[in-house]
Please model this.
Amino acid sequence: MAPGTLARKIWVGLAITIAFLAATIFLVSLPASRFTDPAGREYAAAVARFIVGFIAIFAIRKLNWDSDALRSPSPRAWLIVVPVAVYSLIVYPFLFTGTLALNLSQPNLAGGVALNGFAAGALEELVFRGLILSLLLSANSDIERLSSPWRAILISSVLFSVPHALNLFAGHAEARVAAQLVWAFLLGTFVHVNRLGIEIQPSLLCAAALAFAPIPLCIYSAILLRKRG
Model:
């Protein structure tokens, strides 16, 4: 890798992260906060996230950014994700609320929360796993192509994890935010509708369980990455 190349990519990734946070605050959170109805806020935030996502996609194409962010996954890639999805859908609801049941007592609100959760996840994946990770994985030389992808994965995970600390300013419990920082770094998956209407104030033990629940998935991904190498 040429001198300064990695540092430049990290700075670009940091700039993208800051731009993402600014867009989330000024284009999503603030406009949605104008709605007094909880369901209205969720739907407004979801629509805003989709708009931000489409703007990002347009910018990627307009700038001719050579990124894997917009590349269609292979059938094998979808199969790899299945165990992760099943694990997350079973383990995280139990850790958050102790049940797999969805709170559908208010269908309109539940629909808004589900849509907003999907939009948030899709946008975050586009930015952090698509733009930033693919940027860090891009090779500028034969030597760089032979380097381990672990560095790119760890850096992109840190950039994804750290912004969750801002939840402290939203009044979230310190233990919950600390858990988010760890599991966002390890996984980044969140189950929304299951926790609808439940104020989560985890104990230290529960926060630790939330933080380290992604470890089996990390082992799973390490095995896949080792086979790939």
Q: What stands out?
A: The chain has one domain: 5-228. The longest helix spans residues 107-137. The chain has nine helices and no strands.
